[in-house]
Amino acid sequence: MSIQIIGAGFPRTGTTTLKRSLELLGYGPTYHMKTLLTNPDMLHYWHALRDTGTTDWDGLYDGYTSTVDFPAFPWYKEHMERYPDAKVILTVRPFDGWYTSISNTVKKAGPQTLPEKLMMMGKLLTNPRVRKVVGCIKLVKEMLWKVQFEGRFEDRAYAEEAFNKHIDEVKAHVPADKLLVYDVSDGWEPLCAFLGKSVPSEPLPHLNKKENFKTMLQSLMKGDIDKFLKPE
Q: Please, which residues bridge with residue 180 across strands?
């Protein structure tokens, strides 16, 4: 099995909705950040990709036909090189809404207060699975905040520049016939037209709302990894 769809969009641009939509259209299972969090022993594949520019692709994507969101999107070029026949979907949304959303969700994916930090320290000492999941989250923080935004995410003007730069770079790098720039608010039609699929009768699934993400974070802070990783 080979990767047919590469997601190149930032988190909080409708990537969870895209994941479910692709699966409904026959492009599943789809690799997503939650896949890694559920299987944190896979982290070594991503460390290899980060450190060397390549990895054991067959081992990483055994059984998967598409990938969206973290941890893959920063390496969309490497994915294209490995899977030259794959199509690329760049999920987008207006910057202002995205900045607010990611600031209130992904940016807070870790203990924020002293009690939360102390609780997490206890879980790290006693729960090996929590340690592995936290290792995955550290990779996200490194690649998103330190690499994509060069440690300047709180500088809103710079963040907007970096956000738009990524979009422009994807558009410039991916051949037009292999790229869909997709806002999930546009519904099924552009996605299905791009993939040559019939439009499903059911509505496009809109998942991973802010409220759901907050519940997930609260579970993580309590060390309740099973609840954190439960299906949406």
A: 89
